[in-house]
Write a structure and sequence with these properties.
By secondary structure, the chain is an all-alpha fold. It has helices at about 1-25, 35-60, 65-90, 100-120. The longest helix is centred in the middle third of the chain and has 30 residues, at about 35-60. Belongs to the UPF0382 family.
């Protein structure tokens, strides 16, 4: 589990930086300001949760619990659903993809809740 979360944190961190640079340099003349802001929001949340995954990996190594595993898994789901749907929305213009975004947001919140519960249960 630790290795998986570390690898995912590295992957999401790397791709977040790459996508952020792509948005700032490659898309600024191709997207409307509104869509560029949406793209930047996706990058922002991806980066925050890549770092959170790194923290989860460290926590799981010290105290392996189901709640921490759920937290990391929910952060991954949140990145894929929240950020992923926003990336697709900005690149395709298909507005219906925005329906998926709140599900990703709920996954992020559930991940933070699981992390909080895991911390609460520590001795």
């Amino acid at each position: 589990m630790v290795r998986s979360f570390l690898l995912l944190a590295a992957f999401f961190g790397f791709t977040g930086v790459a996508l952020g640079a792509f948005g700032a340099h490659g898309l600024k003349d191709k997207l409307t300001p509104e869509y560029l802001a949406i793209f930047q929001t996706a990058v922002h949340y991806q980066q925050i949760h890549a770092l959170a995954l790194l923290g989860i990996a460290v926590a799981v190594q010290r105290t392996p619990t189901a709640l921490l595993a759920w937290s990391g898994s929910l952060f991954c789901a949140g990145i894929l659903l929240f950020s992923g749907s926003l990336y697709l929305l900005t690149m395709t213009g298909v507005g219906k993809l925005g329906i998926v975004t709140p599900i990703g947001g709920l996954a992020f919140m559930a991940g933070w809740l699981c992390l909080g519960l895991a911390a609460w249960r520590l001795a």
